Amino acid sequence: MTFDIITLFPKMFDSPFSEGIVGQAVGAKKINLSFWNPRDYTSDKHKSVDDRPFGGGDGMVMLPEILKRVLSDIKGKNQPKKRRVVYLSPQGALLNQKKAKYLAENFDQIVLLCGRYGGIDERIIQTEVDEEISVGDYILSGGELGAMVLIDTVARFIPGVLGNEVSPLEESFKDNLLEHPLYTRPREFEGRGVPEVLLSGNHSKILEWRKEQSILRTLEKRPDLLRESTVTDEEMTQVAERSSLRKNVAIGLVHYPVYNKTGEVVATNVTNFDIHDISRAARTYGVDQYYVITPAEEQLAFVGRVLDHWQKGRGHQYNPSRTDSLINTQLATSVEAALESWGAKGCHLVATSARQVVGPKLIGYNDLRVLAIREPVFILFGTGYGIENSMVRQCEYLLEPIKGRAADGFRHLSVRSAVSIILDRLFGSCY
Ligand SMILES: C[S@@+](CC[C@H](N)C(=O)[O-])C[C@H]1O[C@@H](n2cnc3c(N)ncnc32)[C@H](O)[C@@H]1O
User: Fold this and answer.
1) What is the reported pLDDT for 334?
2) Which residues contact 174 (CB under 8 A, 6 or more apart)?
3) How many angstroms does the Cα of residue 109 sit away from the middle of ligand 1?
4) For the chain, which has fewer Cβ within 10 Å, the N-terminal or C-terminal residue?
């Protein structure tokens, strides 16, 4: 593999590539690095490579003729090759392991164009560049550091660059999972041991443990990756059950204290829809318990009758799947009673609201998902015009509201819809 690097600062590459795996690969001629300095292609006495942007503004722009000359020279000297011209740019697709593997496997010449100043003339991107690649959502002063990152990660996929050829495929991002935790000697370090299974010598149990840890870590740290992994639903369910994932979540539907449309604090009526539809959503997303919370005796009696009908009575005989959807649905007279009934010690209480309420810490969906993987979380949903403020303030967290997309700001979801959307955002996308 040849990397042709177009840079105004070729010396920047000396130190990073004089040692380590890439250094050895260069020494062993597994990869070849060639540098092309645009300054060498100038014809004026100042050796200018840039000029002011048309339309004004900060930052000089690298001249198209100079870059074209460099690129023509590279292309002219290297025929025929499976070549890819890459412009390192914050506007490109983010570099990842899949892209590195693709580049290593499909090309034998990668031209890396390192911009400087405000960037390069757009017409070079349009006519000469095959793709733009970014190394992160931040601005670097030049493409050189990005090019180094790209060379390092692509080189690892080139046969013979790593001593052990299978290892790049056994690291994080294999099948879109992060790697399991690693341990070495001593067996005990500052009072912390090593998981027993790793000392057992039982290879299949070790593999099973590592796979499970990989899935768990990915869920915790990068749930977005799981969407494209081939982890099966069965594997996910197994890991979820063993790690008590999802069983760590209970939800409560608060009928008191909530606001009515004039801002008074009231108790609302329980609706049949809310009992059934929220039970079904809760069961579908593996929520441990769903509490219908109301202090009103006649409402408690009503919910009790509905639950009895479907859990034990004629409804059960008529439609057993309804019974199944209601097995985790319970009644509670208050939020405190629901928390006590659930019994999860040290659980985090999270309010949901369409309004901003000062007090609890605002938490996003990713953070709440990560929290719920390890610790119990009780999420409260309000009926009427939302949970009363002092109740919200008793919660540790306030979940980011669902914003919707309506141009006029309309966002009056039924609580049933809100529960489903929130459960899906928390647990639907990652497994
Ligand atoms: C200061 S930046 C120019 C940024 C440009 N004005 C913009 O806002 O998109 C100068 C050069 O650094 C490189 N660069 C900056 N950030 C980068 C990133 N995140 N990934 C890859 N290259 C980057 C590009 O080659 C770019 O031409």
Assistant:
1) 97
2) none
3) 22
4) N
